[in-house]
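Entry:
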Amino acid sequence: MKVICSFFLCLFTLSLSAQEVDLTSSVQSLKQKIHSSESGERLMWMDSLATLVEDRTDFGYDSIARSTIDYALKRDSTRLALEHAISLTQYIMQELGNPEQALDLFNDLMGKVPDDQHFLELSGMYTEAGRNYKMLNRLKKSVDSFEKAYAYAAQANDRTQMGVTKNFIGQVLAFMGDFQGAASALQEAYQILLESDPEWAWRPKTTLAILYSQNGLQEEAKKMRLEIIEEARGYVSEKNKNEVLNSQFFNQAFDEMLNGSQKERIRFLDSTRVYAFKTDYVYHELQVLVAQLSAYAENGVLDKAEAVKKELDERRKNEDFFEVDEYNLAMAHYEFAKGNFSSAATLGEREYANVRNTQFYEGIYMAHGFLAKVYDSLGDLGRSHEHLRAHHKIKDSIESVQKANGFSYYQALYEAEKKDSEIVSQKSEIALLNARNRAQNMWITFGGLGILAVLTILYLVWVQNATKRKQQAQARFSRNLIKGQEEERTRVARELHDGVGQKLMLLAKRSKSGEDAAVKSLAMDTLEELRSVSRYLHPATLEKLGFSAAVRAIIDEVDANTDIFFTHSIEDVDDLLNDEKSLQLYRIMQELLNNIVKHSEARSVSVDIERKAGTIEIVVKDNGKGFSFKEKIRDSASLGMRTILERSKIAGAKLHVESELSAGTTVSLKMAI
């Protein structure tokens, strides 16, 4: 068995060594990157290095973190500087045990960073400053720092940080003896954390329970602890649950000891042991073992005391053992129960030396009480009487303070309840008056709202009718304008055909008998151009052939005179159209084909006209460069698309244009039959 254990111990040692080698390699690699980089990249590697060796004294964490903070400030990376400063401050206080040095870092940094940004990080820095001032017993400075931390947390709108800092304020006020102020701050912290992070809310409530207990309000303290226990049973985190239940059962066991309820004391200690050994904190385990040893020994339960002492002795052989509070007193009670009074006296004096200069007054008077008992058993009545007198003096002093604070608490509670009662009475009277006023004002309000509603409805009807009239007038104007254009085109086409056309025809016939070929060619070209203009102004083919054949003819004409490849599938829909609609649709087709030839840069075009159930559908599609239809409509110079839209409305057709740049254009017309 020893061989197997030695083997696994060797493997564990090798694993740790490998991890250290990997860490050393990573540190060296990051240092090389830092030296070979500049600006933002260098700051990134410095940030990584400081984070990697955090809390590692052997890797020079202190100097690495300070260099990172200085360079971050130089690069105006204030947030990063503050983040590393918070970690470094915690390291200096907790690992190095030097709160003065931590405060030097804080004061130096606060003179270099702006106070109007990064509020959450500033709150963290002032929180650490408050903790360091508290450790140095500079309580007024501690409260001031926590107050600033709270203000910055409020500016950052971080409710959890607000609750944490308010909890610290309550703790310091309790140390300062401000019972009412501490209780108020702790209650406020509890309410904030209960809303933002319920699994943190137990901390201020626990401090408040201890505060109540220290001031003689044991019933209130016990009630509060039982509430915390019930809340903790519903926690999601098992770690939090075990830690909270351990602390509440342990604190209540201590209170039961002070009250002389030894059975309850042992019962709560047995409960706290279950959870202390699940927290993975050696301190909690040792703390509970020491408390159990003391309780069993004081109450003569020697078999259980022996078992607990055996556990402690086994722990002393391990490297993770350290003396916790009241260890010497517990061992003293054990030796006293065994009849070893001299050993008990030595251990009792050692305990007294540990607590005599602290503010743990309960521990001081318990040490005096025990020493009075042990010296009495040794027959040293003088020393026994001396310790007994000190024991009663401190106990009386504590009870006097507790009574005063308890009276102050209940007086404040009475005044608060009295004030609340007066406020409730005043609220009732105000509510009655408000009800009467509401009843009187209701008819006025409803009457005014009714009149306003009627006026609003009338105004909306007028606006709607005015809008309709405006739209109708605009539509009539568009139809009349287009109708006038068609009439004028017909007149001009007829005059060109009957007047200028006849004369050009006569000129062309006479030029045939002449010898000048150029004059003959010019006459014929001018005549053909005139006929083309005349056909455009007034499509004679539409009257002679009908809409479908006229569209085919115009497509064939464009196809013959351009490089664009045309395909068409045109059903005969003439019987479904009157003269007006035929003309408007034909003009739309003319405009679309004209736009394609002039602007689209298309290589192929397809035209489809078909009759469907209750509709005629026309689709013209090209593979040209495309355009934005909305921009064309808004463009005052683009009359073509506006004319197409207006003609579509006159014909009773719905126009839809799909076009994307470099993706071609598709124009669809749907007209109900």
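Residues 1-16, 409-424 have pLDDT under 50 and may be disordered.
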